[in-house]
Structures
1.
Amino acid sequence: MNLRRDVFQAIADPTRRAILLLVATQSMTAGAIASNFNTARPTVSKHLQILTECELLGQEQTGREIYYHINAKKMKAIADFIEPFRQMWDDRFNKLEDIMKNYQQKK
Amino acid sequence: MELKTKINAEDGKQYLVITREFDLPLELLFKAHIEPEIVEQWMGTKVLKLEGKKHGSWQFETLDANGNVVFRANGVIHEFVPNQKITRTFEMENTPFPVQLEFLEFEQLTDVTSKISIRIVYKSVEARDQMLKLPFAQGLNMAHNRLENTLKKLNNIHHDKAQ
């Protein structure tokens, strides 16, 4: 399994990015996380599973509840966290290039 | 697939440089940064204001499906030289992220290719790294109405730490 690629695929999904942002400030249970979304609970569970598998989220058992938190270690090295940022700018610039190529042809 | 966009972010520095070459003439690359309806398309946000001039200002806003503001940013333009450079500030409203300074430089490579280089200067090394760790916070397509609340919480945590 290519773990590195999986991390970027995990971050590519807007709901998963929203989940990461939610737990950036505090550990939360799956139920608390799901209550922030209109999406069905099993869908949120699937997202949590993917984020946990690629180690962006960590799990901690407190009593009966499992809390999810951001796995800071995973995002420690610049090389790790710069990639999604680069991907975001690359997506934007690809769009810009396409739009302006069409613009050029229309003129 | 190799990404055409390069990012140079050295460890322990409070700035970074984004560079990208385009199969576009310089004039079109520059135009894409100053025409509101074009900026809206590739940035994926509404442009409320974009004054392409020295001492001008700009403001972007993104709403979710319910009409809630999920992202709003603004800044002022310090330098504006057509087809050469734009120097501006960038500030996300209602977030703990400090204002940042952006130097955009446009360069002609050939008649049909051009290059942009954006140097972003942050308040501190920590501010830069924190911003990079949450690219989705900057992601203008965040259709999530809790974003603002979450960022307010983040703000409070920082506030608590500072005390």
Note: Confidence is low (pLDDT under 50) at residues 137-152 of chain B.
2.
Amino acid sequence: MLTTNELKRYDRQIIIKGFGKEGQEKLKRARVVIAGSGGLGSPSSIYLAAAGVGTIRIVDHGSVELSNLNRQVLYWDEDIGRKKVVSAIGKLKRLNPEIEIEAMEETITEANVSRLVAGFDLVVDAMDNLPTRYLLNKAAIDSNIPFFHGAVYGFEGRAITIIPGKTACLECVYHGAIIPQEKFPVIGVAPAVIGCLQATEVIKYIVGIGELLTDRLLIYDGLTLKFTELKVKKDPNCKHCGHTGG
Amino acid sequence: MSVKINIPSYMKSSTDGNKVVEVNGSTVGECLNHLVKQFPRIKKQLFSKEGNLFENITISINGESAYPEQLAKPVKDDDELKIVLLIGGG
């Protein structure tokens, strides 16, 4: 049941055709994990908090550095040196005090990944490295939790939505490819675009509206301002999802 | 076979700024080899020293992933290939 204040706060989205109070109540009941609170996690958490997702868990082990501030818009100059999750929670609670936001200051590992996503409805992949993305992808599939992937490099971005047992997963698309860990180039507007697309997909999935970005990797090129797609298929031999149906 | 290869922005400096390059070949591998023949500088962005396509590069044929055995996939006249970099930053 939405409060009077909530009805007012979310009025502009409630009046979207197909959204309604019912959609808003679904958002209020939803529990979303955002894995990573950097360039992608900043916009996705801001817009999911603003949209009224009832419970958001943010997982990140890092502290704010000056070099983060060109893209990680949850953090400001005054936050340098603070733990990201602490700073993020402070900002998001000020943005929307009517939702629950919890912080997990942990490095995501094979040992803890299942625990970190347990009991949640969706996982947003806002990590900055492929090995951790694969851990999350597998944990999401094993726990039957929809997984919303995004990645950036320079002016480019990628996004895909993964529904366990039904659609291609991250491993089906990336095949375990590993990119040497290096300082990658990125302009803040690239994760802004992709993080907002991830949040869009999360909201659509929860509300049950529109068509999801499944079985197609969205390729965003900010330099030409073009969106293209790579059609992908669920791989029956995939080591992450091959054992599931679909 | 005459095939078009779409070059991603970050590789255009290796193709003299060309966004699209016409190549000949009956497989993806032959088409990429013809691309390299025209623009040798792109070779090190596509292939390892051992001559394998980098694992973070996927080729699409008319918008569909050519994986697995991408280089052996047949192509036909007027097909469009695209070089897609798989990325992991966030």
Note: Residues 28-38 of chain B form the longest helix (11 residues).
